[in-house]
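Below is how a single chain appears once it has passed through the pipeline. First comes the sequence as given, then the structure the pipeline wrote out for it. We keep one example in the README because the format questions we get most often are answered faster by looking than by reading.
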Amino acid sequence: MTYLSDILSDVDFQSRREELIQKMQLDEIAYLDFMKIFVELMKYEYVSSKNWQGIPIVKLPEDILVIQEFHFDYKPTAVIEVGVARGGSVALAASMQQLNGIKPNILGLDIKIFEHAKKALSDYVEKDWLTLFQEDSTSLLSLKKLEEFVKGHEKVFAILDSNHSHEHVYKELEIMNIALPRGAVVLVADGIIEHLPPRNDRPWGTGNSPATAVKQFLLDKPNWRPLEKYSRRSIFSEFRDGWIEKIR
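Resulting structure:
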């Protein structure tokens, strides 16, 4: 036997990989082990330690890779970033659209858009790739802006990554339900909060998180369903079970 003799054919490789992915998605022990590592890494603020195109991005590297897979598969023509932060996620969305032959078309919505983010993203605004809108994401003004932004688009992708309390995320999802077309995909960030130690400096935690909001929203809105392909695509993820799609 040579070191090349165990190389599988493409068909066998794909079959084996899919089998292992499905097993991994059900491996709760592995997920809880990851949670222990994540808690340990929090002291280094690991999730915000990377850049995308020179701009700080507050996402785990494996989540970035899964988002890339989604962009390749779905090819959204309109991307909504609720929660601009430092701007790295907006830069990622622009890169993904460019890689897929789509002119970047992004709406960055946040209750407060800081000057450092505006500066980092100024080229994107000047190129007419990005519209920044400072407003509460659950307001009627935001609803109107979203409706204007997605008009004429069939493939819309939104990431909700702002206030992570159950009430706020649920209200954001209600806004998305009104504004977005059938077939739209929403990624609700930081469901991982449901499994993290409590923090005294945030108005969210176990039982009051994006994960609980998504669960309730799916029960209340049968026109939405989990997007299974990506919901547990990676164990090392902040987005577990946060991918949902509007089916009617």
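Residues 11-246 form a domain with the Rossmann fold fold (CATH 3.40.50.150).

See the next section for the split statistics.
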